[in-house]
Design brief:
Blueprint (H helix, E strand, L loop, with lengths): L6 E9 L5 H14 L3 E7 L2 E9 H12 L9 E6 L7 E5 L20 E2 L1 H10 L8 E5 L3 H4 L2 E3 L13 H7 L8 E5 L4 H12 L5 E4 L2 H9 L4 E3 L1 E2 L6 E2 L9 E2 L6 E2 L34
Parallel strand pairs: 2-5, 6-10, 7-9, 9-10
Antiparallel strand pairs: 1-3, 1-4, 2-3, 8-11, 12-13, 14-15
Length: about 290
Amino acid sequence: MQSSHPYVNIAAYKFITFIDTEQKRPKFLAICKQLQLKGTILLTPEGINLFLAGLREQIDQFLAWLRADERFADLEVKESYSEKQPFTRMLVKLKAEIITMKHPLIKPELGRAPAVQAQTLKRWLDQGYDDNGRPVVMLDTRNAFEVDVGTFENTIDYRIEKFSEFPAVIAAHKDELADKTVVTFCTGGIRCEKAAIHMQDIGYDSVYQLEGGILKYFEECGGAHYDGDCFVFDYRTALNPQLQETATVQCYACRAVVTPRQQLSPQYVAGKSCPHCQPEAIAAPTEATGAY
């Protein structure tokens, strides 16, 4: 995909044993600063998660540097473009997990759940059933505020507030999904790496993860069977099915998502308040560091 916008935004992750995170952190920070990249990189014992933005040449130089480490030689990257730098700083963080689930026995590095490609999923949704004739249902593994920005049509949304709630919620609804093919999805696929494995572990017999998440689906299939936009964890806030920045914003005070319609409210003051919070409760924003 080509774009006239100068900034390339990349999102990538890989589950791989990565025990030298402390030694690697200053090297990651140095190369990103050298190349004038901004964003967030998470280094964890179970792998890496990153979302960065910079000019094309600098992004390509960073990826060449990263892929020179054989552990990340096959790292797959999702790209979008923006007119300006969507991040305000460069962070390299050490964490215990790429995405916190609190189930340490789930190790995507040792084997993934089955994945469905975007174009295959679209075909399934067009016809209403999978290749075995089973009804297909979409299961959103993201947090409730992300789902509110946009999701697949007729999706199952359990309104979780954080991903660590997912195991208990999905176990409680196992019986009602027993005769269906469940396709889990999230922004870029990372949460589903764990979600789909967990569902298999507790007895779901037909569960898939959407390969590459919503962003990959947008890239290959546009907005078919999808309502709204996709929340992203940077200062663009949301992308439409053409992977373009939208007018949706995030409140600096309470971090709630504010739609264009809500921005018409007198309670919305850019950078200060919105209809979701009290106007006097003004706090400094923090850089978004969620998981794709």
